[in-house]
């Protein structure tokens, strides 16, 4: 049952144009995209101290820039310090890689920028982006210039706007694909990233377009997933209103089938509807999922058709989903008879120097294309003889035949750089993977572990078998220590395409960070024994 919200939620469509919070205010004063001029003309010349707060902590996000956490500040002080005490004079910079597509030339430029400007940092995120750290404002115009010269950008990589568009890492090469969605992704990006009519949305707007269900489409604001219509043939099924964070919700199907060439139009219509009808009063109720929760998908579709498209959509069937997420790690045949090779760094952590070596290897094996995956992995496409490539990748610790633990563990940025973090994540995840590989060598398990530094769930706490949400917990000696609240039994699969996919949070189940290897080992052993008993 749906219910109409009565109070003023700041919806533009209802005439509410008075900004109701600080974010809405700075967006109303000026299109955040325009901050770029000031970066190039003033801030890069006059330095960090010249940047006023509204730009520093607000508009710069529209160009992929967040101030990063000052080193040495523990998670216990995250909520108590003022922003200027918490932040360093450096930035995290997010480079959007729409569809996860990279050429070897783009990879080389990312590698070079990392070593020259980012202290050799580069992380593959679980949204197919690359993140640098330690960026100085003085270097930002040069980085933009060089990224844009190779067709990459940081435009709207963060902020209340259309974020990177996820796509299948094997679009255009998979034998299982019927329609390649790449053209739709490119059209959305070309037309609407940096489009001032969509640069002030109520909140972030996450998108995915893929024939194959190898992107986590259920947790996006909008997703188009491949489906065969019995009359019209191959097209895409529309999903809307997904998102995790503190109030997780899976996307729903309005039941509409969209042909490939109409995907950008429908995407823009949904983005416009969100801009006009989305809630702008409270930041934590501004994602599209809250509007869908109140309206229901039937009304959403009706408003979309009547007010935004001016025509009805075609009713469509539900797509068939896989039993488990597909990560493409390993060696796989392409539809042209060549191979793609999927490799696993540990929790997406690579570096500029490693990416430079990767670019050499990719070229030496006759490939020019790389893809990033939504599981913090990477693929090398178009390989004729995969085994020599596998050896060269593994020589730089990009493992093609990894343990299940390396393969199925993800981690967000965490305390090392993130201002919102409460606990450390990346190093802890690397230690956990190494420890579990040692303790459970030879045991085959398909358990997924997602490690998050705070409740924001950037590494998808609620959709892993073991989801870990960073918080302070009471340690053995009674003092507060870094730890995690545990979420169990989540996962995006056909069998659980309902609330069960979000798992559950056993009351009071928390673990200190130092006990994490014991905790996961015990769960894994119990799970294995349960499976053995059932067989
Ligand atoms: Fe930062 Fe929290 Fe997101 Fe991790 S989940 S990257 S700690 S905001």
Query: What percentage of amino acids are in beta strands?
Result: 15-25%
Task: Please give the alpha-carbon distance between the first and last residues.
Answer: 42 Å
Strand order of the largest sheet: 6-7-8-9-10-11
Extended strand count: 21
Helix content: 25-40%
Low-confidence spans: pLDDT under 50, at least 5 residues? none
Average pLDDT level: 94
Shape: globular
How is the biggest beta sheet arranged? Answer: 6 strands, mixed
Q: Which hetero ligands occur in this complex?
A: iron/sulfur cluster
Radius of gyration: 23 Å
Q: Kindly name the structural category.
A: alpha+beta
Number of helices in the DSSP assignment: 15
Overall description:
The protein has 535 residues and is α+β, with helices and mostly antiparallel strands. The chain has 15 helices and 21 strands. A six-stranded mixed β-sheet has the order 6-7-8-9-10-11. Helix 7 (182-192) packs across helix 8 (263-277) and helix 14 packs across helix 15 (516-534). 52% of the residues are buried. Iron/sulfur cluster (SF4) binds next to loops.
Overview features:
535 residues, alpha+beta, five-stranded antiparallel sheet, 15 helices, 21 strands, binds iron/sulfur cluster, thioether bond, heme, NIR_SIR_4Fe-4S
Write the SSE topology.
Layout lengths: L21 H8 L5 H12 L6 H4 L8 E5 L13 H4 E9 L5 E3 H14 L3 E4 L5 E6 L4 H10 L12 E6 L14 H11 L12 E6 L11 E8 L3 E8 L15 E3 L4 H15 L10 H8 L1 H13 L4 E2 L14 E4 L5 E5 L5 E3 H13 L4 E4 L5 E6 L2 H10 L8 H4 L1 E3 L14 H14 L9 E4 L13 E9 L5 E9 L21 E3 L3 H19 L1
Parallel strand pairs: 6-7, 7-8, 17-18, 18-19
Antiparallel strand pairs: 1-2, 2-5, 3-15, 4-5, 4-14, 8-9, 9-10, 10-11, 12-13, 13-16, 15-16, 19-20, 20-21
Helix pairs in contact: 5-11, 7-8, 8-10, 14-15
Bound molecules: iron/sulfur cluster.
């Amino acid at each position: 049952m749906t219910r109409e919200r009565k109070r003023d939620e700041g919806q533009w469509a209802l005439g509410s144009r008075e900004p109701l919070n600080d974010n809405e205010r700075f967006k109303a004063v000026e299109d955040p995209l325009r901050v770029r001029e000031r970066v190039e003309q003033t801030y890069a010349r006059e330095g960090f101290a010249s940047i006023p707060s509204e730009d520093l902590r607000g508009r710069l996000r529209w160009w992929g820039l967040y101030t990063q956490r000052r080193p040495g500040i523990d998670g216990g002080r995250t909520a108590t310090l003022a922003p200027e005490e918490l932040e360093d004079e450096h930035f995290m910079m997010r480079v959007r890689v729409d569809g996860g597509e990279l050429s070897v030339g783009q990879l080389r430029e990312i590698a070079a920028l990392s070593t020259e400007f980012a202290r050799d940092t580069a992380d593959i995120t679980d949204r197919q982006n690359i993140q640098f750290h330690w960026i100085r404002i003085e270097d930002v115009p040069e980085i933009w210039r060089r990224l844009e010269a190779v067709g990459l950008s940081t435009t709207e990589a963060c902020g209340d706007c259309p974020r990177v568009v996820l796509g299948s890492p094997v679009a255009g090469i998979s034998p299982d694909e019927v329609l390649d969605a790449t053209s739709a992704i490119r059209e959305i990006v070309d037309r609407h990233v940096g489009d001032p009519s969509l640069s002030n949305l109520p909140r972030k707007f996450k998108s995915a377009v893929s024939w194959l269900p190898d992107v986590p489409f259920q947790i996006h604001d909008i997703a188009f997933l491949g489906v065969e219509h019995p009359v019209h043939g191959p097209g895409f099924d529309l999903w809307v209103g997904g998102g995790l964070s503190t109030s997780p919700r899976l996307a729903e199907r309005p039941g509409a089938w969209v042909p490939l060439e109409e995907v950008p139009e429908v995407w823009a219509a949904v983005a416009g509807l969100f801009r006009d009808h989305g809630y702008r009063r409270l930041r934590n109720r501004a994602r599209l999922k809250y509007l869908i929760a109140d309206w229901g998908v039937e009304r959403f579709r009706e408003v979309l058709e009547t007010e935004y498209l001016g025509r009805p959509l075609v009713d469509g069937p539900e797509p068939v989903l896989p039993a488990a997420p597909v990560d493409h790690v390993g060696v796989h045949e392409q539809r042209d008879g060549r191979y793609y090779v999927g490799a696993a760094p540990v929790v997406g952590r690579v570096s500029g120097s490693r990416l430079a070596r990767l670019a050499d290897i990719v070229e030496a094996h006759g490939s020019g294309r790389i893809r990033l995956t939504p599981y913090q992995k990477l693929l090398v496409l178009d390989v004729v003889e995969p085994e020599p490539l596998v050896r060269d990748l593994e020589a730089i610790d990009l493992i093609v035949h990894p343990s299940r633990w390396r393969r199925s563990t993800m981690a967000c940025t965490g305390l090392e750089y993130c201002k919102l973090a409460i606990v450390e994540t990346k190093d802890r995840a690397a230690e956990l993977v190494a420890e579990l590989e040692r303790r459970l060598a030879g045991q085959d398990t398909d358990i997924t572990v997602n490690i998050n530094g705070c409740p924001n769930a950037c590494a998808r706490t609620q959709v892993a078998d073991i989801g870990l949400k960073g918080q302070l917990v009471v340690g053995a000696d009674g003092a507060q220590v870094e730890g995690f609240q545990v979420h169990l039994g989540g996962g995006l699969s056909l069998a659980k395409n309902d609330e069960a996919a979000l798992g559950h949070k056993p009351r009071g189940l928390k673990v200190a960070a130092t006990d994490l290897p014991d905790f996961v080992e015990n769960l894994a052993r119990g799970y294995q024994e349960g499976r053995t008993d059932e067989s």
